[in-house]
Amino acid sequence: MNRRTSRDGHTDWCARGHRCGLGEHRSDEIVVDVAGHARAVLVRVRTAAGRDHAEVRVRVALAPGEVAARRQLVGLLGDLRQTVTRAAVAARPAPRRAG
Ligand SMILES: [Zn+2]
């Protein structure tokens, strides 16, 4: 993986300024907006230890009824669990080949 940093010590995707600090580099926000219904904001982060992360904040409009809203939350949590698990598996180092 390409882990380049620029001459000023930031990554090429770092937003610099107030977003970057406390040992972390942070990108500009990447927003996915479904007007009136949902919004997701992704920020790429490199920690002081050099590990890259995706930080995601999700906001979803819930149904007005409590039962429907709870049903939505259950579905949302299940989907998030799948997404996070899939991403975590993809981040693991590839197994070494015997040879
Ligand atoms: Zn930075």
Key terms:
single chain; 99 residues; alpha+beta; 2 domains; four-stranded antiparallel beta sheet; 1 helix; 26% helix; 25% strand; binds zinc ion
Describe this structure in words.
Helices cover 26% and strands 25% of the residues. It is flat and about 55 Å long. The model has no long low-confidence stretch (mean pLDDT 90). It has 99 residues and is an alpha+beta fold. The protein folds into two domains: 61 residues, no CATH class; 32 residues. Strands 1, 2, 3 and 4 form a four-stranded antiparallel β-sheet that branches.
Radius of gyration: 18 Å
| Assembly classification | single chain
- Beta content: 25-35%
Backbone structural class: alpha+beta
Q: How many angstroms separate the termini?
A: 23 Å
Ligand roster: zinc ion
Helix content: 25-40%
Shape call? flat
Runs in which pLDDT lies below 50 for 5 or more consecutive residues are: none
Number of strands: 4
